[in-house]
Fold:
Amino acid sequence: MNIFVCVKQVPDTETKIVPTSDGTFIETSSIKWILNPYDEYAVEQALLMQAANAGSTVTVLRVGSLKDTEALRTAMAMGADDSILIEAPDNLDSFMIAKALKGAIEKSGKKPDLILTGKQAIDDDCLQVPQILAQMLDLPSVAVVVGMSQAADSITVKREIDGGAIEIYELKLPALIACNKGINTPRYASLPGIMKAKKKPLVQHKLADVGVTDGDKRLKYSGFSLPPEKPAGKKFDASDAAKQKDVVSQVVGLLRTEAKVI
Amino acid sequence: MSKVLIFSEVSNDHPKSVTLEILGRLTGHECEVAVMNNLSGNVKTELAKFGASKIHCLKGANLDKYSPEGYAKALKELITKNNYDYVFAGATSVGKDLFPRLSSMHNSGMVSEVTNFIFEGDKFFGTRPLFAGKCYAKVEVLGPKPHFVTVRPNALGMPTSNSAKAGEAADVSVDIGAIRAIVKEVVKGTSEKLDLTEANIIVSGGRAMKEAANFKILNELADVIGATVGASRAAVDSGFAPHAMQVGQTGKTVSPSLYIACGISGAIQHLAGMRTSKVIVAINTDPEAPIFTKADYGIVGDLFQIVPLLTEEFKKLLGK
Structure:
């Protein structure tokens, strides 16, 4: 089975975001980059599927800048066989990323049986690439998947929808599955794994090599800015038990008369 | 004036409120609505009242349940026939899954989850949060039309006035062929309440909840004020609540009218997910907790004492 995992390298969740002075993106020079948290589940799921299907390979793909190869190295340290990096700016839009991934998969010469991704990247929060890529490759897709099992010639996946309800899908491979937290518990990269990852193949392409041109640009961003700071609110001390009832009744009153939300 | 199609989901015999929010914002444009399957009189009336000139009811085999391919193929047929400039939907779990595939079928661009938008003439400009709301940017769509847009529920707000249109309904039969990823079964969530992303009021618990059983006091408060219960990552990682309840950068980004944070210190990734809430109430024993910098009303105190008092006080206020 040819398994592909598409990953993204994103700023760590603790990162303080600073827009660039021209407002076209954010300052990236001092960012700590990590493998997108949801993509860890995709890598783990790929490794579980590889273990269950003898002779399978796991190839990790990423579209992004060369500044750091942390995401691909992490995925290979966890156990992926090889990786492909398509060099591009870190703020490429979803359509271009999906087209680059499609081009790279086709260029690899391997026909995908299973493509795994995270359900979303926590930088631009678009949630588009999995579905666009599936459509471009004419594959069925299920996103926000919290459970996956394999039978003889089909897979069953659980998709989380509004209110925590679950849709259970049955489908045949090839398919694209976008993973959510809960589908598995990602393994930690072992020290030997990290050492081995350094020697694993990492192929590099330019966007033009995988068929992406400027004409594929679909979104134009401007005016990156921080959200307005809220004016300081009212703070009440209710650490003393005697005051609690008063404070609570005051706050509830304000929610009705001042904030008018109840 | 642009020609716009809005895909509307229907729940409990009402169009989802995000559809009405979008319609309200598009006064002055020619707005048509697409719904799946049958249209009730009630849904038709509401859509017309908020400005739908036409309502297309898509009908055909394999459309009784949602599937990304099925819904996308059905809508593609309608869109191809009618030459829309823009196609809108709410950023719900269906909208988020369906629209990227649909936009790709048209080789078109899509903007995800805008919280605001304007038209300058016929040109759309959206505003959307990135990095879970740590920053915002303006965005426009390039390339072939139609352009696709999803809108975050509760962000635009319900229109204060509306210009009613005819809401003329017609069936459109579509042939979507075979579907490869089919829903076999839907298992309901534990809660019948609105999803966090659509909820008007949210009560959230953090690490200070100490254990899963203690969420009972949050549920009691939520029941009184019609809220949905959420949790911080610390609470989810500690096993107090399922991931479906997580608010924050690696959970759900929410913008209710009222957000009550109980025992949540306010890590940057949590604040990112809830800072657009209109009014924030925070309860925490630590007066220096970062959550207080975002709170409109902060209560320094023990949530196990404050929350039950809040429940009682709201009961009195709401006459329950």
